[in-house]
């Protein structure tokens, strides 16, 4: 594949040699080549806040997405999330939370290998953490 600068975004040329169709060559625009590899200028939180501020000022979705260089669908998602929840912060994931923290799991692994899972459950209950035997076994094995 050859990456060459041209005026078109993607220009696919199908070259045939001996009547066969060979691989396409892609040509990328110079502006796209300039964008690739650069880090994002503003952080995620600032970008979300800026989207909400621009929406409050009466800007349309398209006029918000172009200067920030984000898709219209992302702008629409952030605006709907702000209208519904009143914030653009990330929400917690669904599912049951873990009983043992990564630090607790690390200490369980470092304890004597001859200690049984039942004994470890008793040790954890003494510290105030109620945990099942299967949870301890999941960490150990």
Write the layout of secondary structure elements.
Layout: E1 5-6, E2 16-17, E3 20-21, E4 28-29, H1 30-35, H2 44-56, H3 61-68, H4 72-85, H5 102-110, H6 117-127, H7 133-140
Helix pairs in contact: 2-3, 2-4, 3-4, 6-7
Organism: Oncorhynchus tshawytscha (Chinook salmon)
Domain Sleeping Beauty transposase HTH: 36-89
Protein name: Sleeping Beauty transposase HTH domain-containing protein
Radius of gyration: 27 Å
The CATH superfamily name of the largest domain is: Winged helix-like DNA-binding domain superfamily/Winged helix DNA-binding domain
Low-confidence segments, given as residue ranges, are 1-39
Biggest sheet, strands in spatial order? 1-4
Order of helices and strands: EEEEHHHHHHH
| CATH topology label of the largest domain | Arc Repressor Mutant, subunit A
Report helical residue fraction: 40-55%
Count of individual beta strands: 4
Q: Give the overall silhouette.
A: rod-shaped
Q: What is the terminal-to-terminal distance?
A: 47 Å
Strand content: 5-15%
Query: Based on the structure given, which CATH architecture of the largest domain is correct?
Result: Orthogonal Bundle
Number of helices: 7
